Each structure stands twice: as C-alpha cells, then as structure tokens.
Amino acid sequence: MTRAWAVLALLLTLAIAGCGDADPGSSASGDLEVHGAWVEPSPTGKGPAGGFLTLMNRSDRAWVLVGASSPDAGRVELHRSWIEGGIARMAPVATARVEPGEHFAFEPGGYHLMIFDAPALASASGLSLRLEFENGEVREVEATLGSAGGHAAGQGDHSAH
Ligand SMILES: [Cu+2]
C-alpha cells in the first residue's frame, strides 16, 4: 500500500512536471492546455510569421478557439494551409474546435497562426500569444523561436500573403 502510494505520487509529480508553467511555450491551466508553442519568422523577415502550437482539451466539453492576439504583433489571424493540385493554398479560418479529450495541432502545412506586424521578432527570443476561446476564457503562452526546417511539410513563404 505504502509503495503503491509512493508510485502514484511519483507519477503525479512527473505528470505535473511534464506540463508545468516552466515548460517553454506551454500554458497548463486546467481543462484547456496549450503545449509546444513556437513561431517562425518569415524567410525574408518582412512578411508575416507563422505560429504553431497544440491545444489539449482535458475537459468534457468542446473548446472553440475564436481568436488570437499578441502584445508583440499588430495582428494575429487563424489560418489553414492545404495542398490543392500540387499548389500550396492558405486561407483564414474563423474558429478551431477542440473536442473533449482531443488535441488540435497548429503545425506547418496545416492550421497555423499568421502573425502580422511583428518587426522585433527576428531579434527577439520569442513572442507572447493570447488565445481567446468562445467561452470567454483566455490562455497566454510564450512562444519560442523555431524553424520548420526539420519538418517535412513547410508552408511556403508568407511574404506573398
Ligand atoms: Cu497563413
């Protein structure tokens, strides 16, 4: 019994440590968590940057992302990329819905945040993101600077936006 409790306590500690506030790019605050947030400046440094993260819904109701903003940027939009006839397309989307118990990934080649007017990004270590949900709740994360170079599906040069 004592040993079982010790194991349980250890597992809980690991679970919390794996998803704590100290985890860069993450915000663990209850039933909707944000993990692994990162931003990639445009290749030219002039066009909009791409923002990527994973939403995890640990609650029993759907969470709907309805908007995003940043104190470090003029404007942040929700976008989706896809390939159509061999051509990379991209369009704004109004919302992103995360079903109960599911996760929703913003990643290169798919859904992403489009971050406009963030001139300091290239010389910064990251960017603050504020995510707004339909239920009025807000999650804030510090996205780190990253590169999609290691990813198979890039999303192209956003400077053409
Ligand atoms: Cu875009």
What is the radius of gyration computed over CA atoms, rounded to a whole number of angstroms? Answer: 17 Å
CATH architecture assignment name: Sandwich
Bound molecules: copper (II) ion
CATH class categorisation: Mainly Beta
State the separation between the terminal residues, measured CA to CA: 61 Å
Q: State the CATH superfamily name.
A: PCu(A)C copper chaperone
Helix content: under 10%
| Count of helix runs | 1
Mean pLDDT score: 83
Tell the overall outline. Answer: globular
What count of structural domains? Answer: 1
Element pattern in H and E: HEEEEEEEEEEE
Count the E strands: 11
Q: Could you tell me the CATH topology label.
A: Immunoglobulin-like
Overall description:
This protein has 161 residues and is mainly β. The chain has a single domain, classed as Sandwich (Immunoglobulin-like). 10% of the residues lie in helices and 45% in strands. The protein has one helix and eleven strands, in the order αβββββββββββ. Strands 1, 2, 3, 4, 5, 6, 7, 8, 9, 10 and 11 form an eleven-stranded mixed β-sheet that branches. The chain is globular. It starts with a helix and ends in a 16-residue tail after the last strand. Residues 79, 90, 112, 114, 158 line the site of copper (II) ion.
